[in-house]
């Protein structure tokens, strides 16, 4: 999708645990048109049907899905490799994508995928992830995943939402330290996708403008190289 002659940055959007792509779409559409008109967002469902009670029952309609399963300490994962393959297959079929937008479990995945891709352990058959939008994120606690995901600084430009009342906030702060070029929007809410106040809106528009310019520069380089 393009704005005039410019292609919009295209994001694969990974929803939260036991929710759905449709639910994330509704959550994100709290943002104003001035933001939503500048980015192209795609909302898949996770591969596994919900295996327990969803926190959004009574708020959003089912069905609900989960990306993978985990133990209480969030240190051991089930179906994690299958999840990575599912995301890669989706990107092959529906891509290309410039970046990832993730909330909650989807944000934890999104924050790790660029480095897992750079290390050659995930998303090896698709173009490099160039940008991230992380909402209510955290780090993986499994040493096996963390060693590959956070052992060196993550180079992609990233925008992080931190909620003052979010139970994951301390872990979101830790995740931010892994990035070389993080932009942060602080908001007063909990573990949710917030509406944008004036400062948040300006920060987000500036981030989108920056990645749009990077996209245009890359497209220009590609056209030049092909001549």
TrEMBL record:
Q: What does the UniProt keyword field contain?
A: Hydrolase
Superkingdom, taxonomy of origin: Eukaryota
Please name the GO terms that the record assigns under molecular function: hydrolase activity
Gene3D superfamilies for this protein: alpha/beta hydrolase
Specify the Serine hydrolase domain's residue ranges.
7-198
InterPro entries reported in the protein's UniProt record: AB_hydrolase_fold, FSH-like_dom
Statement: the UniProt record of this protein carries the keyword Hydrolase: yes
One Pfam annotation reads FSH1
PANTHER family this protein is in?
Answer: DIHYDROFOLATE REDUCTASE, OVARIAN CANCER GENE-2 PROTEIN-RELATED
Q: What is this protein called?
A: Serine hydrolase FSH
Organism (species)? Dillenia turbinata
């Amino acid at each position: 999708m393009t704005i005039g002659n410019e292609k919009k940055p295209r994001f694969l959007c990974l929803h939260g645990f036991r929710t759905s792509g449709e639910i994330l779409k509704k959550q994100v559409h709290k943002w104003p048109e001035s933001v939503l008109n500048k980015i192209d967002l795609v909302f898949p469902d996770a591969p596994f049907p919900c295996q327990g009670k969803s926190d959004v029952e009574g708020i959003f309609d089912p069905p609900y899905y989960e990306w993978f399963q985990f133990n209480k300490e969030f240190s051991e994962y089930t179906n994690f490799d299958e999840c990575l393959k599912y995301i890669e297959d989706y990107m092959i079929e529906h891509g290309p994508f410039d970046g990832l937008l993730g909330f909650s479990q989807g944000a934890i995945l999104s924050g790790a995928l660029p480095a897992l891709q750079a290390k050659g352990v995930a998303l090896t058959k698709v173009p490099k992830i160039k940008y991230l939008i992380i909402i209510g994120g955290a780090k993986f606690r499994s040493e096996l995943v963390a060693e590959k995901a956070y052992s060196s600084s993550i180079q992609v430009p990233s925008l992080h939402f931190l909620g003052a009342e979010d139970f994951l906030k301390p872990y979101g702060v830790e995740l931010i330290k892994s990035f070389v070029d993080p932009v942060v929007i602080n908001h007063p809410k909990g573990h949710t996708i917030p509406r944008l106040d004036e400062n948040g809106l300006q920060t987000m528009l500036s981030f989108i403008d920056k990645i749009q310019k990077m996209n245009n520069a890359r497209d220009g380089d590609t056209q030049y190289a092909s001549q």
